[in-house]
Amino acid sequence: MEKPKILIVDDDEEILRQMRWALKEEHEVFLASDRTEALRVFRQERPPVVALDLGLPPQPTGVQEGFQALQEILALDPLTKVIIITGNAEREKALWAIQEGAHDYYAKPIVVEELQVILRRALHLYRLEAESLPPLQREIRPEDFPEILGSSPEMRKVLALIKKVAPTQVSVLITGESGTGKELVARAIHRYSPRRDRPFVAINCGAIPETLLESELFGHEKGAFTGAHIQRRGQIERAQEGTLFLDEVGDLPLPLQVKLLRFLQEHQLERVGGREPIAIDVRVLAATHLDLKQAMAEGRFREDLYYRLGVVTMALPSLRERGEDILLLAQALLQCYVAESQRKITGFTPRAMAALQAYRWPGNVRELENRIKRAVIVAEGAHLTPADLELASSYARYEGRSLREAREALEREFVQRALVKSKGNITRAATDLGISRPTLHELMAKYAIGH
């Protein structure tokens, strides 16, 4: 029988050796002595239980690194049971960690038999919770999609839909605000499709002048127009047997919408200036940030093309709807840009983490990338601050509050706004928030919010 995995995180090498020796009979034990190594092992092995010492380098006498490790582990898998290992004098910090999502704590000195009881209980609870999830949720693991970071319920729904549609040949319309990662989703669909070894060709329909767009899509024959000195294949032909991704398809002019519809119906095209039809075998994925139903009502987008492109429609959540993913994405981006710049920046201050989660992110992931990339360049300390991220004003509303208090204040504000917007309609407010009616009722009771 396969042993359950456990990760021990402590900067004391002697404690790590003792723990491995004591626990190896019942567990497959993995060790880490700092936050970076802990996250690397966790991403690779996904242990259901983690024993974590809050005092990690480079601040072994503080708890900032330990708290950040706790938050990042729970962002990767909220079901993980994290046991805080602490000294008797640090009981208050351990209780704070439990408020932030840790499962339990254990005070040193370590008595193996006592710790084993806590670990067994945590593992049993993890299994019960994992088995209670719907089957599809148990199958979806964020590491299946390394190009898409996120483990929030909203992103798990997206990943589940990717797995459903990828093996098929149906066209998919991906909607969402600018900067939400629509092309990443399209690439993931291609990667898990039978066409994965064939070309993936992306074209931004809104970035090419209308006078050139037809030739760019369909190609042209020599002499078709002034300047057409050679025959040229279009992007549709270049995607032969692979996947064609039409980004910002809502920006296509109506005459090209007609030609694209004809291609989708007949699976063949004629180059500009050509007369011979060319058979094409491609899968078409499309994306837009526009409301195409409104565009149809206004006569700016063809209804028949909409239904051809959107056999399946996939709506991507905005970054502000993915609260628990924000710190995960921020940390991953920080590691990337620190490696590029070779600067000695190890994380975010607690205030910066609160500011990241309080901010509304109108530019979504693209804006997050921009702010962190800039902050890595201008920061003077080892941890990024709200000022480095240009989020000082966003943090000001939560000045003096803990991260948990800031989250709760933001959550209360979201619930109140949704109820005002829906004029007290619980069903509509719950839908807008992306939660169930019972969950909304619980939040209203928690924050004493009336109808």
Automatic annotation (TrEMBL):
Residues 148-377 form the Sigma-54 factor interaction domain. The modification 4-aspartylphosphate is found at D53. Keywords: ATP-binding, DNA-binding, Nucleotide-binding, Phosphoprotein, Transcription, Transcription regulation. The keyword Phosphoprotein applies. The gene is prsR. This is PEP-CTERM-box response regulator transcription factor. One of its GO terms (biological process) is phosphorelay signal transduction system. Residues 5-123 form the Response regulatory domain. It comes from Tectimicrobiota bacterium. SUPFAM superfamilies: CheY-like, Homeodomain-like, P-loop containing nucleoside triphosphate hydrolases. CDD domains: AAA, REC. GO terms for molecular function: ATP binding; sequence-specific DNA binding. The keyword DNA-binding applies. InterPro entries: AAA+_ATPase, AAA_lid_NorR, CheY-like_superfamily, Homeodomain-like_sf, HTH_Fis, P-loop_NTPase, PEP-CTERM_resp_reg, Sig_transdc_resp-reg_receiver. Signal peptide: none annotated.
